[in-house]
Specification:
heterodimer, A: mainly alpha, two-stranded antiparallel ribbon, about 60% helix, disordered C terminus, B: about 150 residues, about 70% helix
Chain lengths: ~475, ~150
Amino acid sequence: MNATYGGLLAAAADAMANANRAVKLRRFDSPLDAAQALVDFHGLLDALAGHTWVLLTPEQAAGVRASQGPHRVEVAAIAMAEAIGTLTGSGRPNAALHTQPVTSWARAARCLRAAGDLLATHHTPGHGPRSPDADILDDPDVRAGALSRLGHLTITLLDAEDTLALRTLQTGLHPATVRRVLPGLDHVADLARTTTSHDATEPAAPRDAPRPPSGAATGLVRLDNLGLVAPPIRTDDPVAELTDRYARVRLHAWALLENPDYSITTLRDLAVLGVATHAHTAALHGADLTRPDASNRLLKPLLDRARAWQELHHTLTGLITAGPGDVVVREDLIAITRILQTLAPITPTAPPGGRAAGLDRPLAETLNGAIATMTDIARWSSLTLDRLARSGHVHVPGRLLTGEQVTDRPDLATARLTGHLAQAPDETRRAVTATYQTLRNHPLQPNPPAHAPDAGINRAADVRVIARAGPYQ
Amino acid sequence: MATWDETAKVLVEHADADWEGIWTLTYAAEHATADLGVVAPMADAVELTYAAMDLCEAREELEWVRPDLPARCPAVTVGPPDPVDVDSARDAIARLITAALARSEALLCCDLALADLACLTRTTTQLGSALRAVHGTAGTATTNRGRS
């Protein structure tokens, strides 16, 4: 199973609770065990402080300190981390890291440090993005929510301070040693309580009224589901393999923004994946795809999407670029279509009038996630193609140009006569962009305004994506 | 207006047994597959999209070693699709692909440079994969499995 940030945090919390319970219920067997527990307790404190600096970069901390109206959770978190740092010292690596984890506190520290490392894989050493999820902690509310959870963990740990002091003294450790290591950390606990004051939920809605999840809560869920930026593909379970391969395709589609492969083949493969994903998802939910007029009202958006991706593939087939396709995307496309044909066949397998099998919920969840993934991919592919076309890398065969297209365009007319390649006409580019535009919003969300500012271009969103992707190489 | 089957027969009959003939047949099959996919029921459309992808790959393989092919060869299509008779349209496409495959396999036995040999190998694989997708029952064909 691939680790996620939320999973590691939960494992850290479990281990911490186990250690607290153990120290409360029984004495240490020897002074050595007591000393090890003290070291690991400090190691976990150090890991908590270190994780604060993972959630809050030094630049952001400097901004908080300089701000006239800083977020009080962030102020408290910084003060908490600094107070812990004063106690645990700045020596690296921490003394607790010199040995294999023995106590559950050490295991909790390891999980917490692993969670920090997992987040770090989404950034370059210069804190640039390495994945489309690198911006997850840019949202102040999500950051405050994550810091708040760290505060809860700190409070839980510090609850055991007095008991730990008692147990270590019972083994005969020198009181001065115990006092030096556990000097009374109430001030840190107070700061941690302030850190936990963040509430990620919206004000209470009227009873029985459905309430959409808040942005911060959604962001925290996204943070918890975050895995390694390039996890290994699990091939032992087809649903897990689907999840991993979609994640890898998503990463590659995003990476094309910064490192274009100058290939229309990759974009075509992504379009084929769009067709397969939407058609098989509709089939999984019971759509009969063998009849042209059998479109279920609820599933119609999925089938419309499949048709739009198909149309896009058709249009992209007429375009030519210099680069070969991305072999990883092609490999994943082949593997995904093979799995989909097995798990969610397009032709109905149940006999007519027979009892259909129940919905495979893990598969349905994965495919619903795949629909969202394809929405992201449409947005990025649109930008990728637009940038390739604007920089003159997309061509069409001259012989396929129509008379209308070559009118008043001597370069296109020449290509038409000689049969050489010509740059893709603007109307072709606009048609492709317009198709992408219909695919850039989730099929089960409200449609965008009818009057877009320009044909197929969401400028605000594009500016954000381009800014994150960096300069065009 | 000529039916797809009639046009396909003419193309198969007149296409030469050389690079140009393979390109023309592949081009016609590719466009016919993509056009049919747009009007066919989604169950067929998915398979036809896979086939169109394979045919596009096959054509690009040819153009990789013979960049002048698009300029020299007649880019013929079989006309607008008839959504009523998907099966006969599939047969027409299969006829085009089979003819391209036959020419490709015949060319493989000629005296070829290594680059040409590699190109024809990949092209033949893609054409075979596309043929299976076009022939296969919807949802069960094995797209592009020849390369995996």
